[in-house]
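Example 371.
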Amino acid sequence: MKIKPFGVEQWMNAWETKCELNLAETCVASLTLAELMQIAGTTQQMPADLAAMQMTYGEIRGSTRLRGLVAGMFEGQGAENVLITHGTIGANHMVYQALVGNNDHVVAITPTYQQHTAIPRSLGAEVTEVALSEDQNWLPNWDVVAAAVTPATNVIALTNPNNPTGALIGREGLERITEIARSVDAWVLCDEVYRGTEQGGPVPSIVDMYDKGISTGSTSKAFSLAGLRLGWIIGRESLLDACEIHRDYTTISVGMVDDYFAAMAIEVKTEVLGRSRKITRGNLALLDDWVKQEPKARYVKPQAGTTAFVALDVAMASYDQCVALLQETGVMFTPGSALGFEGYVRIGFACYPDVLKEGLARVSVWLAKQS
Ligand SMILES: Cc1ncc(COP(=O)(O)O)c(C=O)c1O
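Predicted structure in complex with pyridoxal-5'-phosphate:
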């Protein structure tokens, strides 16, 4: 299977260990296991739990405890609607493997995570990209989406909250997308990995609104536990059965230790997500102040997520801007070109506040010297 190289991952692999201040990161400042156990009150209990764990493959779809806890984060889902995967990246991949092949048509709302265009193309599908624009606050024009679907469309893919723009489609927009999908009997794959990072109230999940809605997500972003590599697919049972056929070849099961810590985190979701909101809301206020006072920066303020898509008024392509910033200031952003969208840089704002403040201050000094 031939597939296009993954722009963002290549950028990260090349620079992540060489920067001083990482504003390319998209996870809310990651927790240590010690911090997680402190929040969960399990510091004493954990060693005995791990010592008693018999290292079998565990429950193949993920532990019943974990699947029940994940289901509890949705409105109308039970453990039977949850399949545990190797991160959202494993979840998305498996959904496309199960649903898409030659002669299929996928509509992907972009910019997005590159999986949603590259994987269906690699599987032989035709992909129509519906591009968002800054003028429309990075929200879809539903007439354009409706015009893009055809009777051959079997998946409409989107990321909500959106990476990289931080735009958030609310209930009304999600209702529009389900109407459009229903008109051609398509699935809607909504990558909800940034769920839980909303600046205001939560929005519903697609899986609770549409019988062919699929939600993918993980403990990486709002739960600050990317190191667990623990994600999920939520959907109707027949979809999960189809995904499991592929999963048997690539995954068997996820690690029991990862499953254990993920369940621990979701059990105290109020505290873990509360910590994340404090970071994302406090830091977005810092970023917003910076954009307002920085004459060479412009953006649409994110409504959710951990990233903002910012236009810098510097006469260089986004890749060159980001390399120059790295080399001259030590600050790492992500170029829009790595996301297929020239003219912007992606700023990850969910790191610790001191890193964000110092990074933006250095960028301002650099911007002042650019023509
Ligand atoms: C939109 C989106 N989907 C999926 C992923 C993969 O996340 P995970 O760590 O859950 O595999 C990312 C990671 O940045 C992402 O931004």
